[in-house]
């Protein structure tokens, strides 16, 4: 009896210990999960979030002292800066004035009695150089300015529009350069808005409601933002001479060109309830209307292929970025953002084409949304000015010319030279001429295109996905060019997930820079076929390198790679406009 009682007591104690241990482990697991979430939230915190948690009285004493002094001198700064802003910004407002307005000028401009606050100061040693000092000031301003714009419409109506409730957060850069041995030890000061983190304001018609004028409010707001971007936003900078001298070397100057090929996107987030999104891309280095490129819209497609080429002027390769935004075209309604991505230009090697896939995010500034929105495929080529003759660029007109064609080109005038360029959707093929010309002269003005023979060797594939019930597949490959109806296919290799073909096919390519090679891998069945994956390639790399072999990961497949060898034989020619 005692043995049975002891056994039951032991079992009960054992069960209690197991339950207690399981509960303890569950509690520890939950605690670890909560800690991991907290650490992740702290990791995603921005500087602005930290400053919201940390009140100004916790700032360093010297920063509080600086803000106190700024408060004292602000009335004098207001008086001097207001006139400076008026003189500099009014011409730019006129430059970006909407077509629905006949004039756009300031009638009142004061910055109010609330001074901005510095929230941080840093010395940028890598940008200072041996002959200058570069400083950056983090600034926040919730101003009460009195800014009134006199707006005159095409029909003669004059509207006084007040700019109110300005909220600004950003980083200003000051460059003291060059350093000299005279007081105050530097020759000039350059200032620029290095980073515009947030800019909010409201527009109000004095004595009326601006919403009663459709389109006016959006047009004015866009004009103001463009004026700020084009007047003081980096790399634009204003130069204030302190000591008389020539400071032209400090002025903004183009340093190179960036060629961008927008190839394709895949697995885009669907923004439509019925059907699929109609994506298009907006690409820019500086977000100005006349410097922004827009692709064509691909209807009802989450895996669009654009294969479009754009060119941008670069002023500061060390700080500028290429930004791409993918939108869903909603027709007459406002387009909806699918996602955006950014690549730093300093990551590009001059003269080398960089092939990149960029993951799309909701916001480039605060990346708190981890939702997958798709990816975009770009080819990027940065060419610094002065190095054009040493770089082998497939986007360059001279690269596409044979010796005979270069001879023809050298015999043309400067005006005719401009007319010989690579065929591109973003460039005109020729300029109209007022004088008559012969057939040979017309031929010299023709657009040069990259024509040639593309040889593709389908070598093998590896680790293909299982599609048959027996755990194997009967794969074959179909090759085609996007601009051609020609299709070729390899033989079928039975019952394998690692087939070897070693078959070569030739394609005559009429326009290499704007065509694409489509590689599709299929499983052969008695009653049909099943797609196993695909690869889409531009011809830029093979045109540039002449020949290369590479392993490509299959798209639209759980696994699998395909090994290809590509060779290009050029047969350039002219195309009549």
TrEMBL record:
Biased composition (Low complexity): 423-440
Coiled-coil intervals, chain numbering: none
Protein's membrane topology: Single-pass membrane protein
Pfam families with a match to the protein in the record: C2, SMP_LBD
Residues in C2 domain copies: 237-358, 433-552
Keywords: Calcium, Lipid transport, Lipid-binding, Membrane, Metal-binding, Repeat, Transmembrane, Transmembrane helix, Transport
Cellular location(s): Membrane
InterPro entries: C2_dom, C2_domain_sf, SMP_LBD, Synaptotagmin_plant, Synaptotagmin_SMP
A GO BP annotation: lipid transport
Domain SMP-LTD: 59-243
Protein family (similarity comment): Belongs to the synaptotagmin family.
Function description: May be involved in membrane trafficking.
Name listed for the protein in its UniProt record: Synaptotagmin-4
């Amino acid at each position: 009896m005692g043995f049975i009682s002891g056994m039951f007591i032991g079992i009960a104690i054992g069960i209690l210990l197991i339950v207690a241990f399981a509960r303890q482990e569950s509690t520890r697991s939950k605690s670890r999960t909560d800690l991991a979430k907290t650490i992740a939230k702290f990791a995603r915190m921005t500087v602005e979030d930290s400053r919201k948690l940390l009140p100004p009285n916790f700032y360093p004493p010297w920063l509080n002292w600086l803000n106190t002094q700024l408060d004292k001198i602000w009335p004098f700064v207001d008086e001097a800066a207001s006139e400076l802003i008026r003189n500099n910004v009014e011409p730019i407002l006129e430059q970006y004035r909407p077509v629905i307005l006949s004039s756009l000028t300031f009638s009142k401009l004061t910055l109010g009695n609330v001074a901005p606050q510095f929230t941080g100061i840093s010395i940028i040693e890598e940008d200072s150089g041996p002959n200058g000092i570069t400083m950056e000031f983090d600034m926040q301003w919730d101003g009460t300015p009195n800014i009134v714009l006199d707006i005159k419409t095409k029909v003669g109506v004059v509207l006084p529009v007040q700019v109110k409730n300005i909220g600004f957060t950003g980083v200003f850069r000051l460059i003291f350069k060059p350093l000299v041995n005279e007081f105050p030890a530097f020759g000039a000061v350059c200032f620029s808005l290095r980073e515009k983190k947030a800019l909010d304001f409201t527009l109000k018609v004095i004595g009326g409601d601006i919403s009663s004028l459709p389109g006016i409010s959006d047009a004015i707001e866009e004009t103001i933002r463009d004026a700020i971007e084009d007047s003081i936003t980096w790399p634009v900078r204003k130069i204030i001479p302190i000591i008389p001298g020539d400071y032209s070397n400090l002025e903004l100057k183009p340093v190179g060109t960036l060629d961008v090929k927008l190839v394709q996107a895949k697995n885009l987030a669907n923004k439509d309830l019925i059907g699929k999104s109609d994506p298009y891309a907006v690409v820019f280095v500086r977000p100005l209307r006349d410097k922004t490129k827009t692709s064509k819209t691909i209807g009802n497609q989450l895996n669009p292929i654009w294969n479009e080429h754009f060119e941008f002027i670069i002023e500061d390769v060390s700080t500028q970025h290429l930004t791409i935004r993918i939108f869903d075209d909603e027709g007459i309604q406002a387009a909806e953002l699918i996602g955006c991505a950014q690549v730093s230009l300093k990551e590009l090697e001059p003269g080398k084409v960089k092939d990149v896939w960029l993951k799309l995010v909701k916001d480039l500034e605060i990346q708190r949304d981890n939702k997958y929105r798709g990816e975009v495929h770009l080819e990027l080529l940065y060419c610094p000015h002065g190095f054009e003759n040493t770089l082998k660029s497939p986007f360059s007109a001279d690269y596409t010319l044979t010796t005979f064609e270069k001879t023809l080109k050298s015999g043309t005038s400067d005006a005719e030279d401009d007319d010989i360029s690579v065929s591109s959707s973003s460039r005109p093929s020729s300029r109209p001429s007022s004088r008559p010309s012969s057939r040979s002269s017309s031929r010299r003005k023709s657009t040069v295109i990259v024509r040639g023979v593309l040889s593709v060797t389908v070598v093998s594939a590896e680790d293909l996905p299982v599609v048959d019930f027996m755990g194997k597949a009967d794969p074959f490959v179909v090759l085609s060019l996007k601009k051609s109806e020609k299709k070729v296919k390899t033989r079928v290799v039975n019952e394998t997930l690692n087939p070897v073909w070693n078959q070569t096919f030739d394609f005559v390519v009429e326009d290499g820079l704007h065509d694409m090679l489509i590689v599709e891998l299929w499983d052969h069945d008695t009653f049909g076929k099943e797609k196993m994956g695909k690869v889409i390639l531009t011809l830029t790399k093979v045109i540039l390198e002449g020949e290369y072999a590479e392993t490509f990961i299959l798209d639209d497949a759980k696994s699998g790679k395909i090994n290809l060898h590509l060779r290009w034989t050029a047969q350039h020619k002219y195309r009549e406009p």
